[in-house]
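Example 3.2
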Amino acid sequence: MAKMEIGLYDVLDQAQMESHAIAADVYDEHIRGAQEAEQLGYKYYFSIEHQTSDVSFLSAPNVYLTALARGTSAMRFGVMIYQLPFHHPIRLAEEVAMLDHLSRGRIEFGAGTGVTSHEFMRWNVEFDRRREISEEALDIILQAWTEDSVTYHGKFFKFDEVLTSPKPFQRPHPPVWFGCHSAASFEYAARMNFHVSQNIDTDPVIADKFNTWRNIWRKEGHSTPMPKTFLTRHVHVAETDEKARAQAESHLATAVHPEAVPAGKGRDIIGATRLGYGPSGMRGGDPGTPERAELRRTFAERARSYDFWVDNGIALVGSPETVARQMQEQHDLIGHDIFCARHLFGYISPEAAKNSIRLFAEEVMPAFA
């Protein structure tokens, strides 16, 4: 079997928030889940930041990660990704450095630009300039971590001799990941010598993008070992293939299984607002670039077809033996270094998700150690 490091991908999404009376209960439950995953041998824990979105309600990730840092002892953790255009880079650099100390060097820094235009509209941040903003922000963050002071004069940020503290626990700084979808993102990550992550595209598309990134990285002539690649997928494991599909299918192919959403739940919060998803959002009218058009197609197919999820590696579903085989075939194609499993998705029952986490840890993970 292939060797890869394995983690848990845990999203505080709309279903999670709807299933609890108060947000405090959601946070407590997910931190307990991280502690249990650590005991089962998961090496990583990641979640994702979104702003003004029903995709993720982790709107203040560093507050949550501070609690996580103090509640765990070995697991490496982070958000994959921070949406850089929504952050003050000096403040983010200092908070992550402090988190690195509070965890004694366990933080992973996942950075990216964001892909959903309605979030930017609501914050009055220019969606079409998000890449420029993000690149400036990362330059400043790296400077804050590695130099005595920050002096920077860019289009979006200007600082003069800012004295930042603390410097990170990890030297020279925590591992930097860049969430990549576009060709420009992969080129930037290769040039900057960053690790790269993916979570949405189909397996063949990701394999092609990762290979392109590797080739560009080699041409850059870096003197360090090649950075790592990260893949996250929906995973559901049960005792048999039939049971796993029966438990997971309706929570993946949501458009053809509306009965999977409890009565009064699953409201389209964003679509019901005055601004909606915006003209170039993933559910808007403008297809945008070919890459964004492909993402829109993938989202649409996922909603309509369970087979699309499984056939394209976006979800791994089955018995421990089946999921282990799927993981091996996926790794043969993509060659990723870290795999994170998202077991809690849709309105799948907590009991089924916990059983999946346990079976995956006990009967699938050992094959890839």
